[in-house]
Amino acid sequence: MNEAFRKLSTLVTGLTIFSALAACAGDPIESGLDPFAPKVFKEGKTTLPLNPPNKSTLLPFYVSQGTIFKFAVDTDSILIGADGVTRYTVVITNPSGGQQVQYEGIRCDSYQWRLYGNFENNRWVENPLSSWSDIKTKVVNRYQAALATGAFCNFNNQETNIKTIQTSLNPNSFTGDTKPSNSMGVIIGY
Predict the structure, then answer these.
(1) What is the rounded distance in angstroms from the CA atom of residue 116 to the CA atom of residue 7?
(2) pLDDT tens for residues 30-44?
């Protein structure tokens, strides 16, 4: 009986160790396949536009009461990237009529923007210092925030339907400067 008990004990111990090892092998954290782990951002290749903004597709949008500039986005230039970046051309006009034309990108997941290049002297010039920067929401010329909250992002997710973006940019319904409120309609955070 002692011999049978020893064999049974060895068998149970072996099965316990095997079960523990099998369970660890399927652990998503151990295997690196955790579906809830944050995804690492890998930006796709960005090429500057070939042409200047199309004046017939420039759509003005509201930024804030305090700004003295006018802002418009070239709707033909909007590119919804598979990498999670929405790229676009923006035209900024100062009160005397001078214009700054920029090609930029917005990431909704991290609420950041990047300047890829400027249109200068009838050609696109790449920005050699291009890097991702946080979108500022409490500045007068907060046009990236207006575009992100009003058209390009659905909370922290990229809007992937170009028609939805174009509809959202409609000046009569654009919500880029809508301030968040609580359930009582009281503006919060400002």
Answers:
(1) 71
(2) 556 666 667 788 888
